[in-house]
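Good morning,

Both structures are done.
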Amino acid sequence: GRGLKSHAYIHSVQFSHHVFLNLHTLKFYCLPDNYEIIDSSLEDITYVLKPTFTTQQITNLDKQAKLSRAYDGTTYLPGIVGLNNIKANDYANAVLQALSNVPPLRNYFLEEDNYKSIQRPPGDIMFLLVQRFGELMRKLWNPRNFKAHVSPHEMLQAVVLCSKKNFQITKQGDGVDFLSWFLNALHSALGGTKKKKKSE
């Protein structure tokens, strides 16, 4: 919020930090004056937070391998960037990295329109996996990243929640078990059918 008692307002007065970004609307505001800032130079920030891809860009991903430059001057190849290791989540990072380079899966999740209108039952938390995986995929393939690595924190929080803590950030897990669970969970959350004796 931006009201007089909000954390943002108090912070702006105490520390003379005046530009704030609403993470839901992606609009910038100047506090404490409370007016919207419209400046095209801030578009880089909103694109890093919510990268988007056209169908043409997705089609050309495997045809045009082009290096991108990060904010610190290092170069990286979109899709081939590091995932931060928060504690003991390297097993999950390896699986997520591998899946991000499977073209049909990558292409599906890069275009949010493919799944954003899927209807899920009220209170269904499993669709959070789909949303977070799509966000992570778009960040991994973003040609305008500020750094040559990406944080999988939101994705891993969804994994911990949706797996009922079977897969955690703080203790090592088995990559094969995680891969099997994750693919089945995505399949189910996207409206796939369940088989009694074997998984899809």
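Second structure follows.
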Amino acid sequence: MMGNGSKYQCLILLLLHHSSVSTPEKFEVLGPSEPVVAAVGEDVVLPCYVKPSMNAEALVVKWSRAGPTEPVILLQQKDAIRREDELAHYKDKINLFPEELRRGNVSAKLSKVQTSDHGEYTCFVGSQDWFDLSLIRLAVQAVGTPPVVSRTTDGNGVFGLQCESKGWYPEPEVFWLDSDGNKLPAGPRETHRDKEGLFTVRHLVLTEKKSSNRFTCRVVQEQLHQTKETK
């Protein structure tokens, strides 16, 4: 027969064993605090890591556009990677780095970035007992062309200067300045987006023709810290 002391020892060992099995291995999912910046047409990596570093091959890794109802665009589960087809735009466009999963690197690579990729993404990592996620912001940028100026006239001494600049993202501001650097009153202004989502801006200024007239068309995108102008 087993003595009371031995029974208590067995019970304690059993409880310790049960506690060690049922306690989930907790981890954090970390991404950059600042937006990831990418130019239109280039490839970009959306960084995401598991801390402490562990083998993520057996974990569930999900990438989706941010939002509770957004569909998953990439899923890694049980050593298999598949792409969900709810968003056809991301088919063959987003990939993990399989050789990095063992190190806890669950970053995703986006190929040939477009303006429609601009926004927030969710990196989710889960085990049977634990999960965490991180929000990654992608800022897509495109710097447009220097303004092109063309002239029109009504034949009565009033003429117009049309300014046009193409290929911007996000949308820039456009305005005219006189010879003293003062903004001129806003005339007709147009904004268009092409099939790639890039902005074209046009701005017309009307004035009387004088030999002393000197004008500057300035296009400014403050987020990109970009200014282009034509005198």
